[in-house]
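Before relying on records like the one below, remember that each one covers exactly one chain. Contacts with other chains, cofactors or solvent are not represented anywhere in the record.
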Amino acid sequence: MATLGRKAAVAVIRRVHLWGLAAWLSWLFVHILFLIGFRNRAIVLFEWARSYLTYSRSARLILHDPAPEATEEPDPPSPAAG
C-alpha cells in the first residue's frame, strides 16, 4: 500500500489490486486499524478529516531539545576538597 496524493493510492492485497479512491480509503482504514486505543484512532481520524477538508498541511518539527534538567539526573555531590 502506498499513498500518492489526495484520493490517490495503490494497493496489492494478495490477489486484489486496488488503485485510486478505493486504494486510498483502504490505506486510511488499515492505518487507523493499526493504531492502539480508541482515543488515538479518533484523534488521528479527526486530524486527517480536518486536514483533508481545509487543505491544510501541518509539519511536526522538533525545533529544540527539551530542558536538560528535565531529562537528566542531577550529578552526585563531589567530595569535599581536602
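Strands lie at 2-5, 8-13, 16-19.
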